From TrEMBL:
It comes from Algoriphagus formosus. The keyword Isomerase applies. Pfam families: MannoseP_isomer. GO terms for biological process: polysaccharide metabolic process. This is Phosphoheptose isomerase.
Length: 164
């Protein structure tokens, strides 16, 4: 199993090779961390990681926030939802599990292997879960309110293993 430092280094190198610029890195999350891609590259990011999606139809508010999530083995992000964004995720390395529900009750999980995608609607409850090894997920935030784009404060946590 790769170390956290190695998996972050590998992901940054692969993004650089693809011409993407990482504008923010957070490797201090208790579940792993993320890399934020330059917003000006959202169209290229979407075209590369979500080529089957029509860019104009996923660009709801004129703003997309591309990110790479790196989920540590056995770690779970909070059971959460958002008021001002929908999300699209694609597993690009390893495997991850995803729990979803339209209610506060956590539903069954589905496993996403490399190449698998899931769309999360605004308000849909969800949780990303690391499995046996690091999972790497390309993510697009679809901001649903152009006047108040979603941010890290737009997380309603229903349950969190880390007490946040």
């Amino acid at each position: 199993m790769q170390s956290q430092e190695a998996i972050f280094s590998q992901a940054k190198s692969q993004l650089s090779d693809l011409g993407f610029t990482v504008v923010k890195e957070d490797s201090e999350r208790p579940w792993g961390g993320f890399l934020v891609i330059d917003e000006s590259q959202a169209k290229e990011f979407a075209s590369h990681f979500f080529p089957e999606e029509d860019f104009d139809s996923i660009n709801i508010s004129g703003k997309l926030s591309p990110k790479i999530l790196l989920v540590a083995p056995g770690k779970r992000l909070s059971w959460q939802y958002h008021f001002r964004r929908a999300e699209i995720w694609r597993c690009i390395e390893g495997q991850v599990a995803v729990a979803t529900s339209l209610t506060d009750e956590e539903g069954d999980t589905n496993t996403l292997a490399k190449g698998d995608k899931i769309k999360l609607q605004q308000g849909e409850r969800h949780r990303l879960i690391g499995l046996d090894d690091w999972g790497v997920v390309a993510e697009i935030w679809q901001h649903t309110d152009s006047d108040h784009p979603s941010d890290e404060a737009d997380i309603v946590r229903l349950q969190d293993d880390f007490g946040r």
